[in-house]
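Page 37, continued from 36.
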């Protein structure tokens, strides 16, 4: 069984597929080798690899970097539920910390839920220890995911007449924040792990990338941009009072990944494979058989750079973002060396 800490429901999370993915990655390296998790999301893969490997993890989103500091860079710092409650009680309502109350009351959250989000966000800024701050922000992300009035992500909120909304509005941000810490005892590491928030191609062009024996790539496989589905987490972490757009109240400056465009995704995979090969790293890719590029086409691109390209496949049940579950998808892992 792989080590795991649940943070939130996240599109494409590998937390339920670790027993499939981790042995494939580990078969290409030895204990102590450095592994890059290039698009780490909730860091489920890096966390499972953490006991035996040095991890360099990366994702373009700042909320993801924050989870990486809490779970991957963290060398055994944890908070108890009592300490989390003390954190919550340590601050009073402050007029400078009113972003959520001002922008999002009665949308994704009730006014009361927004006030609690602002309060915990304020408490996080008062921490002197970066790892404690990251743990508090990760607990708050869990609470936001649990209490939101939406279909399980932040692309749009429920209309006021939705019959489920009354119950969701009653959920307590404070209680779910505190509850996260009962299952969040973070593991130690003997290694100096690194957490980054860059575009993947910048990272693969830096010297640090040459240290990796294996690069693990888990990119978006559909047109859904993560910056649209999780914009509220980005805003909570940055707390920068951004300009908002559209009914979903999205940040104007959100990142658009080329992996989410059918006419660009092939070039992106070509770039990843070329840079990893130049750096001397093996490459492991998670993808779906329903992705924007077909597995045959993808394999052809990878074979231009690597002598050995092996395909592993597993059927799995998949959440359709509030529209139930389907088991018609196959998770594909391609290993190249
Ligand atoms: C399928 S998710 C990764 C899920 C992750 N393995 C987990 O278990 O949570 C894809 C991630 O790619 C990131 N991403 C998309 N384009 C990127 C880019 N150009 N550079 C870095 N990260 C990117 C997204 O922010 C998202 O978190």
């Amino acid at each position: 069984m792989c080590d795991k800490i649940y943070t939130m429901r996240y599109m494409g999370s590998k937390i339920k597929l670790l027993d499939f993915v981790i042995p494939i990655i580990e078969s290409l390296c030895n204990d102590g080798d450095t592994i890059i998790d290039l698009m780490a999301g909730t860091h489920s893969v890096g966390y499972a690899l953490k006991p035996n490997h040095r991890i360099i993890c990366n994702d373009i989103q700042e909320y993801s970097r924050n989870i990486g500091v809490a779970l991957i860079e963290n060398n055994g710092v944890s908070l108890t539920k009592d300490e989390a409650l003390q954190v919550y009680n340590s601050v009073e309502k402050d007029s400078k910390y009113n972003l959520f109350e001002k922008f999002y009351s009665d949308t994704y959250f009730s006014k009361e839920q927004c006030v609690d989000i602002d309060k915990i966000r304020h408490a996080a800024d008062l921490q002197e220890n970066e790892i404690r701050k990251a743990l508090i922000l990760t607990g708050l992300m869990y609470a936001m995911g649990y209490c939101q009035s939406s279909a399980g992500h932040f692309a749009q909120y429920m209309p006021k007449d939705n019959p489920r909304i009354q119950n969701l509005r009653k959920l307590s941000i404070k209680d779910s924040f505190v509850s996260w810490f009962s299952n969040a005892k973070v593991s130690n590491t003997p290694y100096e792990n690194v957490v980054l928030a860059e575009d993947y191609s910048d990272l693969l062009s830096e010297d640090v990338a040459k240290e990796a024996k294996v690069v693990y790539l888990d990119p978006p496989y559909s047109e859904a941009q993560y910056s649209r589905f999780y914009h509220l987490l980005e805003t909570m972490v940055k707390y920068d009072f951004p300009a908002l757009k559209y009914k979903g109240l999205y940040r104007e400056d959100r990142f658009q990944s080329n992996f989410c465009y059918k006419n660009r995704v092939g070039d992106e995979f070509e770039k990843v494979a070329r840079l990893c090969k130049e750096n001397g790293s093996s490459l492991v890719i998670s993808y779906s058989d329903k992705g924007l590029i077909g597995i045959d086409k993808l394999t052809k691109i990878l074979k231009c750079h690597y002598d050995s390209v092996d395909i592993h496949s597993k059927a799995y049940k998949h959440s359709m973002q509030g529209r139930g579950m389907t088991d018609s998808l196959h998770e594909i892992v391609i290993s190249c060396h």
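The mean pLDDT is 95. Flag for discussion at group meeting. Residues 1-76+193-220+257-337 form a domain with the Rossmann fold fold (CATH 3.40.50.150).
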